[in-house]
Structure formats: structure tokens, C-alpha cells
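Request: Have a read of the protein record below and say how the chain folds.
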Amino acid sequence: MGVCADTPVSGGPHSGRMIHAVGSRNGGGIRTVTSRPHNWNDGTRPGQSRQALLLIALLLLPVATSQSQARYGGGSGTREDPYLIGTTGDLLALAADPNRWAAHFKLTADIDMAEVPRDTVCMIGNVTIPFTGSFDGAGRRILHFTSICSGRNRVGLFGHIRALNGGVRNLCLVDPNVQGAGGTSVGALVGHLGTGSVVGCRVEGGHVSGSMAVGGLVGWSYATITGCTAQAEVRGQYSVGGLVGLCAWDAQVRDCAADAYVAGISRVGGLAGACTSTIIEWSSAKGFAAGSSNVGGLVGCGEGATIANCYSATSLTGDSIVGGLVGYNGPSYDDSNSLPGVILNCYSTGLVTGRQDAGGLVAINEPNCIVNGSFWDIQTSGMTTSASGTGLPTAQLQTAATFVHAGWHFSQQDASDDYWTFAPELQYPVFAWQIGVDDVGAPAASGQ
């Protein structure tokens, strides 16, 4: 499914069935029927024919009326009574009807889209009419979603979200295939996240490709991504990340993890490709990342970004500016309010391979940018130098005292699970929220 077009899809169980000319999807009345001249050879009289038609119409009126009033699997589209999406037809109907993109929806069953024809478009929200409502996945899955949109921007199941009090939550995509060759803002779940939030969502397997701002979950974000994970193969050119391609201007990423194969040209990261004036906290990455320049295990290029309490076990390779945690850590370039890049209480363990300006933790750390309480493993990374941070042997990075002395929190500070802990089978410290769940972001025992 999913050869890109702007023409709404027709068909499916919500295209508005009509029996003869009785009723319509948007109106409950009976349409006027123009009868043909009566055929006297059929053995009936004209009055009998008209009476039969009227009787049929009256009998079918309740059915036609209920079909015209029904939308999706139920609900009225309010926050308290969302439209219910339970079939492939429901999802396609939502994508085909921009008039409903300000409403609220809830998924009521897993949906497998493997059999949807490839020339069927399924994308909710675009640059002209963004999705401004909310979609609650209720912990359910959409399987085998495919979108092939060469040369188009803002590509994903949700092409463009701009929802002040909405967004997407608790939804899992399994084996998505999203191709946006030559396009900007490409993600499996959301292409462009303008405002709103993506909370508790997952991508399990699949492939995402595009040109710029390409991410396993979200392509380009100006908003909030919380409690999300992505396992995918992500390919692009610029600003390519395992979870999100590009974060900018007050965007936030918190309690997230990526386990991805990420490849691009510049600004390539295991979690995020590039971040400007963004906060990333309590998040991690592992897998593999490759690029020509500005390659990082967690973030490829940070400009005025605050990266706190994060780690990377990503193995990475590049030609220049290759860092185990962050490739480039610099200030934002907004003259009115330039912010320094900040890295606090982070570590990296992944293998780093770079020909020029390579570092175990950070490849380039610009003047006035801050790196405190952060470490890299000099054995597993293969790097003894870094632009900033402290390099230690494996044994010391697997000892709690190393981190406690640096001021890291290993006990609960508030009602959340945002604190560090040790899981013996993982050897390095991880987040408390990762214990007892599918540990997408935890480092392997070898640290790679």
C-alpha cells in the first residue's frame, strides 16, 4: 500500500454502501427514485409496482440510516467518546477524510495491513491539513504498514501532527516499510511533529528511508517524545537517527531508547541525528551507526542541546567527527539567545572507528560547552582520547562507586523511575525504567 498521492482513497467498508437509491452515507433520508415506464408484460399493475418499491424502501430505511450515521467502529470523535478504529477499512477511512483529522480516535484491535494494495494511500495529516486531534493506540499494534512516497516531505503513518493537547500515544508499529526517497521529515510513525506529543509508542523492526530528517519513529520534531522505543533500519542523507532524525527549538526526548542500524552522510546518531536547543534525558541507544561526518552513538550533532543522564552502546564508524556519545557538541547559533551544548552524567561503551577527529565520548567540544560527570570505556571503544569526558577501563565503569562519586543518582528522587541502577547481567548502569521491560536500550555485557 501507499504509493503517494494527495487524492483521498475511496472504497472499503466505510465508503458508504447504498442499496438501490435508498439513503446515503451523509443523509438519512430517501432519495427520489425516477421509475421507468411500466412493463405490462411482467404481470403486475402500476399501483402494485409502486407499492412494492415503497414497502422495500420503508423496510430498508433503518439499515440505511444507521449506516449513514455510523463512523468507523463507533464513537462520536470527542475526547471522552473517541471514534473507534478496529479494522483496516476504519484506518483507511480516517486517512482518506481530512475533515476528521481534528477528532479523537482509539484503536480497538490489532490491524494487519499486509494485504492492502500498494497503490492505496494511508497517511493521516499533511502540510496543508495537519492532524490536530489525538490517537490512542491502547497498547495495540498496526502491522506491515507501508508508505512509498518518493520526493514528498512529511511522510509516515501520521504525515504532520500539530496538536496542542493531542498527538499519538500507546501505539506499536510492527515491521513498517516507509520510503521517502528525496523527501524531508520521514518517520515510521510521524513524519513531522510540530506540536503535541508522542508518548509510549514503539517501532518493532522494519525500514525507514528518506533524504533529510529521517528517524525510526519520528522524522522531524519540535515537540515532545516520551517513553518511546524504536528497533529499525534507518537510512538517509542528513540528520538521520534511530529514534528521531532532527529535534529543534524546545523539543524534548525523555525515557526513550533505540536499537537501530542507522546510515547517512552527515549528522547521524544512534538515537537522534541532530539536535538544536533540545533536551534529551534518561535515554539510550545501541546498534550501529555509520556516516561520513558528525556521527555519534547517541547524537550525531548537538547545537545548544542539553543531554543528561543518557548512555550509548552503539558501535559506529565515520570519516570525521565521530564520537562514542556525541559527534559534535556546540552552541546554538541563535544570536539573540545562544545556548551552550551541555552533557551531564552520561557514558558510552560502543566501538568508535574514525579517521579524523574521533573521540571516545565526544569528537569535538566547542569552547564554553559543558561536559560534566561523563565517561567512556577505553577498552570497548578502542579510544584512549576524547575532546572531553573521562576515559576509564571496563572494570571501573562496571562499579557503582565510579558513578556515585560523580554525583549520579542511584535512588528514586521523585515518583518516576528516572534514576540509575545496576542490573548484574548487563554489567553497566541502566535506567530503573528499563528494568522489567523489553530492554531495547541496554548495553550488551561486552559493552558493544
User: Anything to note?
Assistant: Confidence is low (pLDDT under 50) at residues 1-69, 444-448.
